[in-house]
Amino acid sequence: AQSVAQPEDQVNVAEGNPLTVKCTYSVSGNPYLFWYVQYPNRGLQFLLKYITGDNLVKGSYGFEAEFNKSQTSFHLKKPSALVSDSALYFCAVRDGGGATNKLIFGTGTLLAVQP
Amino acid sequence: GAVVSQHPSWVICKSGTSVKIECRSLDFQATTMFWYRQFPKQSLMLMATSNEGSKATYEQGVEKDKFLINHASLTLSTLTVTSAHPEDSSFYICSARPQGGLIGNQPQHFGDGTRLSIL
Q1: Burial level of A45, CB count in 10 A (0-12/13-18/19+)?
Q2: pLDDT the model gives residue A75
Q3: CB contact residues (below 8 A), chain B span 83-102, against chain A
């Protein structure tokens, strides 16, 4: 079965410092990976995806993620954190190649950026 | 682009009431929509996949008669929680995948969720 793991429940970082939110995956074929962000009492917002191509994927709000096949990781990064980046971040992998395109979500990582 | 509207955003009602939640794709057509449930400080749990013009596909453990899903058009799916009880209180989120293109490449776009509180 396909799965993703987010090993950190919470990440704390000071404003202006680089941030990393970790994600590892387990898939039987080629991975289709996604990052989403959720603000309090809101739905999820799409940040970026990896389907194929360059291992470094750039997304919204200055975020990027690096796909590493050998380490089966897809960590989310940002060079300089903002207080407004504080939110809940979910990594997800697409489950299977069928039309349903179900997403399997990780447990989420709460990012707290201190001023 | 790719906006999904979910309504209502907050519902408080008495036990035994049925509640309908709407999910609309405003600027794209979606053959497939998804309904999730999220408990506090937890991840999203997929409840069902809604396909336009056909029956929804429910995940294991989700009661079909309890959570009725209708996807009558390419822009609207509804979730009805029938005879709701306090244990049904949760945050319900819908998402929609744009029609066309490579299926796996399309990200899902999410609504803002509905907070359901059953007294």
Answers
A1: middle
A2: 98
A3: 91, 93-95, 97
